[in-house]
Amino acid sequence: MGKYDIEITKKIIAEHGFKDNEYENILKIMGRVPTYVELGIFSAMWSEHCSYKHSKHLLKKFPTKGKYILQGPGENAGIVDSGTKMAVAFKIESHNHPSAVEPFQGAATGIGGILRDVFTMGARPIACLDSLRFGNIKTKKTQHLFAGVVDGIGAYGNCVGIPTIAGETIFEDVYEDNCLVNAMAIGLVDKNKIAKGIAKGVGNPVIYIGSTTGRDGIHGATFASVELTEATKEKRSSVQVADPFMEKLLLEATLELIEKKLVVGIQDMGAAGLTSSSTEMSYRGGVGMEIDIDKVPKREKGMNAYEVMLSESQERMLMVATKGKEKAVEKVLTKWGLHAVVIGKVIKKQNVVIKEGGKIVADMPVEPVTDSNHKLFPRKNQIGVKPKYLKDINIKNADIKTPENLEATFKTLVASQNIACKNMVWEEYDHMVQTNTIVLPGSDAAVIDMKGTDVMIATSVDCNGRYTYLDPFRGGAIAVCESARNVACSGAEPAALTNCLNYGSPENKEIFWQFEQSLAGMRLAAKALKTPVTGGNVSFYNESPSGPIYPTPVIGMIGFIKDKKKRYATQFFKTAGDRIVLLGKNKDEIGASEYLKVIHGLIKGPVPEIEMKEEIALQKTLREGIKKGIIKSAHDISDGGLSIALAESCISGKLHGKKILGAYVEVRHAIREDSLLFGETQSRAIVSVSEDKLEALKKIADKHNLTIMEIGKVGGDSLIIKTAKEKMPYVEKINMKLLEIENLWMNGVKQYVG
Amino acid sequence: MKFGIIVFPGSNCDRDCLWAVEEMKQKGEFVWHDSKSVANYDALILPGGFSYGDYLRSGAIARFARVMDSVKTFADKGKPVIGICNGFQILLEAGLLPGAMLTNKTLKFICKYVNLSVENNTSPFTNKCEKGQILRVPIAHKEGNYFCDDTLLETLLANKQVAFRYCDEKGKINAETNPNGAVYNIAGITNKKGNVLGLMPHPERAMKETLGSTDGKIIFESVISYLKKR
Amino acid sequence: MPKAKIYVTFKDGVLDPQGTTVKRALDKMGYKNIEEVMIGKYIEVQIKGTDKKQIEKEIDEICDKLLANPNIEKYTFKVE
Amino acid sequence: MPKAKIYVTFKDGVLDPQGTTVKRALDKMGYKNIEEVMIGKYIEVQIKGTDKKQIEKEIDEICDKLLANPNIEKYTFKVE
Ligand SMILES: Nc1ncnc2c1ncn2[C@@H]1O[C@H](COP(=O)(O)OP(=O)(O)O)[C@@H](O)[C@H]1O
Ligand SMILES: [Mg+2]
């Protein structure tokens, strides 16, 4: 068959990374030796990245149904009901390995990919979020990666005109050689015009739209499924260069085609490019596809079917249109300076048939290539084994000495990498375009308005990888709770989540245990909070010779504020004289904290407890208090604990053009001073209310059975924190001018990245 | 009043501008870059974005769009034309405004609220402002470092063509309050006649308290008032 | 096919923000011999035709109209 | 003072979105003879020193480290 009828040798099979009996299964499926092109297609589709062979059975256990869910996992993006005509499509994806090799282009193309996932559904993207993890910002290498990644995300999203409105930026040594770049996109789609990645209608044309196909990214999916070493970096075929202007054209043209009902089905050519889009679309429609390689627009001379099928060139879409409507399709595309290239047609036989030079070079059944339920489809039922490192992972509080000078400790923390302000990141992103960003970055969750409705969308991405490393189950649960809590702090009800699961090699039983456990934790929290999973992405093999990353399940949460008055909250104090109230219970927990790491140099547990009942009580109280116009500011307590949350409530308003406002705080407690000030006990938040609303707030908290304590007053130009054990008199622990705090906080990271 | 909003393939503030016009209770319409005529509008807006990816130089390719000839004719007739951000860059490239745009001195894209000092309140775009009034309006650009040589700067000043300058919240103008390195802290200029305005900041983003400021409105109010009197 | 090599550089007196930043970065990296850096564009154009004069005229035109901004940039080219 | 002229271009097979877009613009403007456009960087560096070998070594180093992105770009230079 065909001119690239290369003999399939043992060596070639090995080079394609097949494991166990996968090649035997191919022989069974094909009933013959596969062609070279077929082998390449199997290799890409059965790679971890496309097949989810290690993770599928666990992902299936996620709760996926609920009152808001219109589209769960399985499509290019999940969709939730906003209660208006327009539904919300959203999804998160990783671009870790490409970004580690080439930070600017890797991160940029990551944004491109996730935007396409959203607009192929017919949704106009309205926001992006980014979750970033690097090594220590003090190293040259991290500074280089950081600059490139942030620049790349900005360059792409800004050009396409999608505001990047929230994210997280975390620095931990374990990410030094394997940075994480996760990107999320949110879009709005008319409920009646949701498009799908499906091929239907025998004889319908298969149309190729967008950039030319080059040799870039061949075997990208396979590449994402191996560890990063110097050797793999070399092996990487040429880097994909982002073309955001092409993306913008594709976006507008795609939406117009869908709007004009010219689309039967459409999907972007993402991982494994033409291979995955053609097989997946065929599979979903119960049909097959015939593709003529000669017709595919190519960037380079001499590209063969194998290369064309496996190329991961960016900014390309595959579409099935109704036969006879080709002219109308072409007209829309011409308007946007694009072309419709018919490269094949839908066929009845459920096979993908690839032709080149008039000859058939691949002819393979769609089902076993795509459907994970097929009996010959690879699956790895790995069983995890509890990692040895967890044996001595917990400290006893008694072994840690409380520092003498807590103000000095506070100063160090407020300027530390993970706590210091990240405005230099979001200021490189256009976060205001589309004029819907009501809460800009720099508060717990971003809030976007849905103009012309009573609805606003709140969103946040979160994960604490250190927690998940120290206690995978709790870490997983906390990631879900924290993202929901951030959303609740804006006044929204969390509705659904998408997740990006970043782990080391699943072939390592200990890492697989981290995976199992953290997913179990996520399940527990997602069920309790009624936030089903609508999709996501698994990124395994995040390892380098220096070891695996922390297990990092990043949660992207979507919530709604539904209210005629559109009341919402931000995290910073509003008015001098307002009362500061602590919601939730203080516990004697210093394990796993930023404080323990930065001040004591220890990465040790125990991870703070998480009680779903308390979490739900807190979130309900926040929501009700905000909706009733009682709570004027709300900020959850996370990295750095109570003292940092207070400081941020004082100073972060300045980033939003508001005055900074001091606080005078007195807290009675029965725990260690450092636990109180810096511990990261979960399910707590700092809110402020005007004095006359204190009682009303207490009533709400009582109703939900939530611990509540008035701890101080807004005002002045300093942050003053006094504490007292039981009946003892108050002792001043922190008394600092806000300007000094602000200076430390604003420069903690900035000093390294200018 | 009817505003025409010119749409290039890579414009991305076109919808925002339309929204802003409608917030001002005026009519607005999109004008595709291939259009031949803009004669039936009272004012034109060239919105922000990345007209052709901003490849080569921002605005360099857009200037050759078919609609630009009629934009010139429109401007020559003394009708108001506003170029915001990328729109400003296009007007510079097209020669409707003098000078050129360089990359920000930080080489980075900057998106944040800044303060503008109104330098001239006699133009169609600022007649509702006080001289020296401070407006809080966001910027979002990577190439907003306005450049002109000394001779041109003198001309601009002599003709009162400098419309806005970057300042702080108290109105202080210096290197520290200059976000992008622009000559003389220039954020916006008009042509000699005063009917063409180019500005880097986005007034259409500052139309509502919930978006952070309503200071952008005054620019639209000025244009509307000017058109009514005309 | 003839190829035109085009060099676009900043005019004297125009500040080159990229060049300045790169110069500073090199300083920091310890390259003390570098006195000045100017960053411009290098453009290669493949053009059909046989008449060199005609080709040069066309290239000059597209440089003047599109590839360079005469307010701040100057250009040179050679056709090979 | 010696001057290095540095040309940074894309490696073969790497997408050049700028070049493609400019080519399309020229098409639309009626320049039908233009077959291909590649947009790279042209950098001029003024450098102190008298030993040409040494200068070349230094220039090569800064190209490799800073001026070109070895993942997608290649460079040539000459010292005058
Ligand atoms: N990479 C980023 N992109 C955009 N916004 C970011 C990024 N990193 C941090 N932020 C913003 O900074 C603020 C603080 O972030 P973070 O400390 O992660 O908040 P929290 O602890 O509430 O999750 C948030 O508003 C967040 O959206
Ligand atoms: Mg928070």
User: What is the arithmetic mean of pLDDT of chain B?
Assistant: 97
For the largest interface in this structure, which chains are involved and how many residues does each contribute? Answer: A-B, 34 and 33 residues
What is the CA-based Rg of chain A, rounded? 26 Å
CATH architecture of chain B: 3-Layer(aba) Sandwich
Summarize the structure.
The complex is a heterotetramer, with one copy of chain A (754 residues), one copy of chain B (230 residues) and two copies of chain C (80 residues). By secondary structure, chain B is an alpha/beta fold.
Task: Walk me through this protein's architecture.
The complex is a heterotetramer, with one copy of chain A (754 residues), one copy of chain B (230 residues) and two copies of chain C (80 residues). With 754 residues, chain A is of the alpha+beta class. In chain A, 35% of the residues lie in helices and 24% in strands. In chain A, the strands form five sheets. In chain A, strands 8-10-7-11-9-12-13 form a seven-stranded mixed β-sheet, sandwiched between helices. In chain A, helix 8 (140-160) packs parallel to helix 11 and helix 19 (472-489) packs parallel to helix 20 (509-529). The radius of gyration of chain A is 26 Å and the shape is globular. Chain B has five helices and eleven strands; from the N terminus they run βαββαβαββββαβββα. In chain B, strands 2-1-3-4-11-10-9-6-7 form a nine-stranded mixed β-sheet, sandwiched between helices. A two-stranded antiparallel sheet of chain B has the order 5-8. The mean pLDDT of chain B is 97. The N and C termini of chain C lie close together (9 Å). The longest helix of chain C is centred in the last third of the chain and has 16 residues, at 52-67. Chain C has one domain (3-79): Phosphoribosylformylglycinamidine synthase subunit PurS (Mth169, Chain: A), CATH 3.30.1280. The model of chain C has no long low-confidence stretch (mean pLDDT 94). The A-B interface holds A 151, 154-155, 158-161, 243-246, 248-249, 252, 336-337, 426-435, 437-438, 440, 449, 451, 566, 656-657 and B 9-10, 12-13, 15-16, 19-20, 48-50, 52-55, 108-113, 136, 138, 140, 142, 202, 204-205, 207, 210-213. Strand 2 of chain C pairs antiparallel with strand 2 (34-47) of chain D. The complex binds adenosine-5'-diphosphate and magnesium ion.
